Amino acid sequence: MPKGTGWRISLISIFVVLSFLYLTPTLASKLPSWWGNLLPKDKIHLGLDLQGGTHLVMEVDTQKAVEGTLDLVATDLEDTLNNKNLRFKHISRNGSDKVSLVLYEKGTAETVQKLIKDKYPTYEQSPIFDEGGFVGLTLRVNEKDAKDRKDKAVQQALETIRNRIDQFGVSEPTIQREGIDHIVVQLPGIKDPQRAIELIGRTARLDFKMVREDISPTSGTIPDDAELLKEKTVDPATGAVTEIPIVVQKKPMITGDLLTDAQVRIDSQFNQPYVGIEFNSLGAKLFDQVTAANVGKRFAIVLDNNIHSAPVIRERISGGSAQISGNFTEKTAADLAIVLRAGALPAPVKIIQNVTVGPSLGQDSINKGLYAGLIGVLLVVVFMAIYYKLSGMIANLGMVLNIVYLMGALAALGATLTLPGIAAIVLLVGMSVDSNVIIFERIREELKLGKSPKSALDAGYDKAFLTIMDSHITTLITAAVLFQFGTGPVKGFAVSLSLGVIINLFTSLIGTKVTFDLFLHKGKAKKMSI
Known about the structure:
Radius of gyration: 34 Å
Low-confidence stretches: none
Distance between the termini: 22 Å
Largest sheet: 6 strands, mixed
CATH architecture of the largest domain: Up-down Bundle
Number of helices: 13
Structural class: alpha+beta
Strand order of the largest sheet: 12-11-17-16-10-13
Mean pLDDT: 85
Shape: elongated
Oligomer: single chain
């Protein structure tokens, strides 16, 4: 055996064994019980185009995110002015880009102007103006801040949707931003798409607000610091929905941002599911204070501006735990727990495209892709065997190694195989042969110069090395760009292509060279079948 060949044969053999180990879960219909404890159990996942599923394009209402930020600014200014004993008549968001303040005195307005300048230096202030006998002042968000808030809203929505889908249990979803305010979601193999859509698109803004018993819902005059919401109840026997109007304080006492956990639990008395929630230390402290100060009053649990329930506070509740009850099924309770754990969306999202891909189309695509790949491989094998004779068969062996290694790598990484990914595998077959063609033509040139087969082989590989490296590196750069900027299917192509390029370098420069070395290791061969 030639010097240095042993470690290369060992390396090739190890990679072959590992590839088949990782491919076993994909190829086998059923694995023995002990397999998962000792050996790899992940398999190659099929993408949306191969196994069917749901493709969604969602639009984030980024303007609502800006308005939400201004609502928080208005609330913060209320608290700040109250803490500093500065009297004001009214503070609220006005339109979609500013906060209006109505004060009683000009002197107070001047003090507030300085306070706002220190607290919100990037916001634009208007001069003090007369507001129907009072003093007016407006605070406007500038264009740059509004743009930044919109951008962050899309990014936050992306992360929130990803968290919800991860907890929902969809295998290998694709969630990515597209354009300025669009998010693309692909859910391969999902069995209940409508439930997933409702889960993803739910804003899940949770607030705890005090009920205003002093205001009748039918009075028609709701003060500025209150709002009219509805509590929906469903008759379990008939399914009839009843809406009960309730007036609540507009400013929440506690918000869902203070939650740390939400889990489905079963009421032992009525055997009904409910959602148990846990607050962080600040939330637990606030919940304790609010319940202690309002015993005997009603406390509305508001989700997305709908009241889930409005129970009476019977006693002080310490410990940071509470529960959301209602007419839940186990599924609806589980979905509510998921969205509460994942957090609220920073702005509403609207589904502007909803395409369901059937699995039959996926199977058809798989079959056509496999047929195309098989025909391509057979044609290449025949061509190489005829044109390069025995050397062509060695190149074919390298091509088979390429495919085995690539499929094993995809399985090891738990990658998603898409139709473009199958196209990349077919392309890899051509690349594998192309590398060997370059090497073989170099060897032929050396043989024409009268060199021995062993010398011609070594010279051919040496001279072809830089050419092969250059072509593979440029292809790898292209694949990296496709992966960085491409959408789901294009990324699938880029992953398969990148892995294929790296593997092909190994098989073409090491795998086939070892085989030739084994044939020619004594240096006595007079001719070379090429």
